[in-house]
Amino acid sequence: MTSLPLSDALSAVQRTTPLVHCITNFVAMNSTANCLLAVGASPAMLHSTEEVAEFTRLAGALSINIGTPSPHWAEGMQLAAKTANERNTPWVLDPVAVGATYYRQTLSQTLLAFKPSVIRGNTSEIMTLSGLTHAGRGVDATASTDEAREAAINLAKQQRCIVAMTGVQDFITDGTQHWRLNGGHALMPRVTTLGCALSATVAAFVAASPGAPLNATLAALTSFAIAGSRAGQQAAGPGSFQVALLDALYQLTPTDVRQFTGLEEG
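Given the sequence above, the corresponding structure tokens read:
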């Protein structure tokens, strides 16, 4: 299958507590930090141009989310991504609503030049990045996984990275190997910033499993799928679901990941 068992990737996160430098949006900071802590990682939220390069040198991985961009934040993102690229520090790009405005498209193109290890986005975002014309509605995906499959593969080949396209069914590819993942719960889209938190979680897993970004990405998405499914079984609505998800991530074990059956090649 892959070079490293997915359960080992979760074990590595729990054992090493990787430091993840997150440049993320205002809405996502709290939930992202809590999810990282729950899964076993150590979060840091920094975006100032005066310190992002220095801190990126200390971190195990970088996660960049363009959800609420401004010129100063965009400059910080570029400095951090440049530093990560120069030091071979793994980093994850979350191109939130990249199809919505020219500003986001330009910023994303600039960031892509610094070679992210993983791109995590929804179908519309991945289609936009791959160069296809597709009108997304803000941060919402308006295309199916099947419609966006080739775009994800092309983007992975273009960037020589992992592309994790999430939705009702997730699709993960390195351009050659392709995986589909079923899991999670219908309440997940009803809780804001879970996708943002997932991108940072991918960064934590990639940091803890050097040289195995595909396995690490698969393990991170699998962990979220299991936790989402379990949270949905006890939640009465979005509010209780969010709390239950944090608990489920915290309680997750390598055995849970090993026994997961929702991942298949394709």
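Confidence is low (pLDDT under 50) at residues 132-139. Try to locate this feature in the token string yourself.
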